Amino acid sequence: MNPVTRRAVGVLYLLQALGYAVTVTSLPAFQDRLSISDAVTSGVLLVVCLAAAGGSVLADRLAVGVSSRRAVVVGLTVEAVALAVVALAPTLWVWLPAVVVYGVGLGAVDASANMQGVLAERGAGRPLMGRFFAAYTVGAIIGALVMSAGLALSGAVVVALLVTAVLQAAYLLVMAKDLDPARAAVAGQEQKDAPAVPRGPVIILGLVILAAFTVDSGVSTWSTVLLDDYGVRDAVAPLGYALYQAGVLVARLGTDSAERRLGARTLLGVAVAVGLLGGLVVAVTGGTAGAVAGFALSGLAVGVLVPVAFGLAGRVLPERSDEVVARVNIFNYAGALVGAVGIGLLVEPVGGAAFLVGAVLLVAAVPAVVKKVGVRQSQA
Question: What is the pLDDT of residue 155?
Answer without folding.
Answer: 72
